[in-house]
Batch of 2 targets.
Target 1
Amino acid sequence: MLEQFEHASILVLGSGTSVGVPMIGCRCKVCLSEDPHDKRLRPSILLRFGKTNILIDTTPDFRYQALRFGIDRIDAILYTHAHADHILGLDDVRPFNFLQRGEIPIFASPETWAAIERTFSYVFDSGPSESSRPRLIPHLFNDKPFPVAGIEIVPIRVSHGKGTVHGFRFGDCAYLTDHSDIPEQSLERLTGLDVLFLDALRHNPHPTHSTVEESLKTVTLLKPRRAYFTHISHDLMHARLEAALPENVHMAYDGLEIPIGHCDRL
């Protein structure tokens, strides 16, 4: 039986690209902007279902994101892929192990898991350690839906240049980041959405990311009720682009919290 959550939301922890905005050493208008919407940490979101918190990606900014937004519990972590801007904050889950007095389940594709295990080999070393390290329970997923903290998660395979990334659908919402193309079979899993997040790096073409114009075409094709663009570079000024977008399409920004209403507990 499915039990619908009374309170559910998506909290944007970071909406920026791999180097963040402002970018180190840059003096462009966006990097010097005083608009807080133009300050973008590395890309991540927190799914809130009642008292359950599911984190998507642990960016290098994760410690600051957790402190900034008052996150005091992580029930599970999903990984889109193993690039540095999506995994390097993994060590900062240790305080959650202390607070929750237990291990935290993490979910990744086999390829992403292999890279995480290699990058953080000390975490998964079975030998004794004099210092603390994250306590994690790894779970591997393929293309089939899987449960996470009582929520059904549908993996969405997308292309990131020559590589593969996974987005995730939960109820009538979906989060895609770091994609240059969405295969036909994945588009079929993205129909009937209330909320859709899409990569929209900049206007100029990029070999591994979607542009604003390409993501607008995806919105037209899939027809979500609300769409949000993320993984935004310093080429895009928030206020200017927000004013030019269709009524149902918005620029995501750090701290944006979106109420969602159609996600059920398994």
Target 2
Amino acid sequence: MPLNHFKRALTERKTQIGIFVGLADTLAAEVVGTAGFDWLIIDGEHGPNDLRSIIAQLQVLAPYDVQLTVRTADHDAARIKQLLDGGAQTLMVPMVESAAEAAALVRAMRYPPAGMRGVGTALARAAKWNGIADYFVHADREMCLLVQIESTRALAALDEILAVDGVDGVFIGPADLAASMGYLGQPGHPDVLAAIEQGITKIVASGKAAGVLATDPELALRYQSLGACFLQVGVDTLLLRNAAVSLAEKFKSATGSKAGAAY
């Protein structure tokens, strides 16, 4: 049975630094998987990933010393079942706004009687197609659920969400939270930053693991000092674009070329 080392790291509150992987390409995923990050989120919410591309990235990244999380598109239990059967052990689920939603997600990730995950291990990569004889004994224990708090409604329900047994960590999404607070496109607004800090403090006090997206190193250190232990510090698409733009500008400036000129 594969052990979920990411879940253990969260339990021990070891700082985990990672990025979102949204290019939906195995080679690109392998490149960032060897860069030294602690964990990666294969993004099925905003990235153009589907079940097959997600499983392919889980396969290509399996040999490397990096922990893998999959962000789901939504709360659909059938899709969650397919991702778990495909080998995902840690799921991040967006837009969780109530204890009832969190509890339903816990059930979707567990076998009966604790949950409602369908039994189909003959077709499941996670069980090595019935090759893991005691898979059912250990599977629930290795599942890790991260719920995303991204709205004022979710913040208002945070205490109740944190009380749900089976929620391993809570991840705050600054962009959607800012939009919900009336600051669309301003995740760095002081009111948003204050709400994030209050949320992290509450999560840590509950005994759950706290996570957040923070692309600014100083801000990431601030959140870490408050107790956040799983941090997302970038996105593969932006790493590629920013490096490409920087390189283009560097050489166009050096050669006197105008932006957009043909070579």
